[in-house]
Design a protein that fits this description.
It contains nine helices and 15 strands. The chain is of the alpha/beta class. α6 links the parallel β5 and β6. α4 crosses α5. Residues 3-58 form the HTH deoR-type domain.
Length: 252
């Protein structure tokens, strides 16, 4: 197991239990105690946990894991991305993508499909798409959010103000039939809203863990969302509420 995978696994166990032990992690992850100690030190330096004698405890608040550690639900995210790619029909010539693990999976599918203009504020997506001959890539400016590799803020917002797109795909941290779509950061939420306003159709990509959930900053009302693509783990009653609110729901 690579260190990045171990770090994600440690954070997952910490979120479930509130504390972890070095010996328990070494056994569960089939690695050495020394490696686990180095992993815990790395995570503490990033203020993602607090080390204790023989283990670690969760910090009081962890709002968002950095993108490089979000390795869970890989199969679900791939399925969601494949379902999303089917919305890019021959009549769609331009799309927008914000940052996130699921939109990154979608970008990789679009890169080899057909000629397409793609607008994104995500540096990792831009890096993936830049050498692709079929993609006419546009990248916004803005300040960088290290957690998501996204360019956000007034520069990004102004860049998006004069753009018109056929379709926008948004990764979100929460979607709720009453409160709408949301993310953890208020500056990111504003830039996501500006991206949303560029398109005639908005498709939200959210795995089941985010359906029915709220996050700190609202991106937009549910009336601004046309389609939700999720997976089979999404709560059925929440999906019914979203359908009643006028959202087309696709379960990948």
């Amino acid at each position: 197991m690579r260190q990045e995978q171990r770090l994600a696994a440690i954070l997952g166990k910490l979120a479930d239990a509130g504390s972890v032990s070095v010996t328990g992690l070494a056994e569960d992850l089939d690695t050495s105690v020394a490696s686990i100690r180095r992993d815990l030190q790395s995570l503490e330096e990033q203020k993602l946990l607090k080390r204790t004698h023989g283990g670690a405890v969760a910090v009081e608040v962890i709002y968002e894991l950095p993108l490089r550690y979000r390795v869970g639900r890989r199969e679900e995210k791939r399925q969601i991305a494949e379902a999303a790619a089917r919305f890019v029909t021959e009549s769609v010539h331009s799309v927008g993508l914000n940052g996130g693990t699921t939109t990154t999976e979608l970008a990789r599918l679009l890169a080899v499909s057909r000629p397409l203009k793609v607008v994104t504020n995500a540096l990792n997506i831009a890096s993936d798409l830049c050498p692709r001959p079929l993609i006419d890539l546009v990248v916004t400016g803005g300040g960088v959010r290290p957690e998501s590799y996204e360019l956000v803020g007034p520069l990004a917002d102004r860049a998006l103000a004069g753009i018109s797109l056929d379709l926008v795909f948004l990764g979100v941290d929460g979607i709720d039939a009453r409160t709408g779509i949301a993310t953890h950061d208020e500056v990111e939420a504003q830039t996501d809203n500006c991206l949303l306003r560029t398109a005639g159709k908005v498709v939200v990509l959210a795995d089941g863990s985010k359906v029915g959930k709220r996050a700190f900053s609202r991106i937009a009302a549910i009336s601004d969302v046309h389609v939700l693509i999720t997976d089979s783990s999404a709560p059925a009653e929440e999906l019914d509420r979203l359908r009643a609110a006028g959202v087309e729901v696709v379960v990948a």
